[in-house]
Inverse folding.
């Protein structure tokens, strides 16, 4: 399961050789929608360095999800985005810090 810290502080998950890292021939990665929301919140309200990392990683997630689909070049690895029940939390504007 990928969490917000993994997305903001480590190598992008798409670049990892997961079967080698995990030591298993088949790997199933899970990304909670809540993690994407938390990353979005850091993009808007986080400290400058973390906010920039969030701005860098969110488009990568969106653009690269297709690589995890069958035929997308990521053999033996699946990525599932799990949507928990409940309301969604997506900040829309950056609050100026004066």
């Amino acid at each position: 399961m990928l969490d917000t810290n993994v997305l903001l502080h480590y190598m992008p998950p798409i670049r990892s050789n997961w079967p080698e890292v995990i030591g298993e021939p088949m790997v199933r990665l899970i990304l909670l929608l809540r993690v994407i929301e938390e990353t979005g919140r850091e993009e808007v309200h986080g400290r400058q360095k973390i906010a920039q990392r969030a701005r860098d990683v969110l488009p990568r997630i969106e653009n690269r999800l297709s690589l995890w689909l069958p035929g997308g070049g990521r053999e033996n690895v699946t990525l599932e985005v799990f949507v928990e029940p409940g309301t969604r939390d997506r900040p829309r504007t950056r609050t100026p810090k004066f």
User: Anything to note?
Assistant: Helices lie at 4-9, 18-22, 33-45, 48-64. The chain has four helices and two strands. Confidence is low (pLDDT under 50) at residues 93-98. The two ends are 37 Å apart (CA to CA).
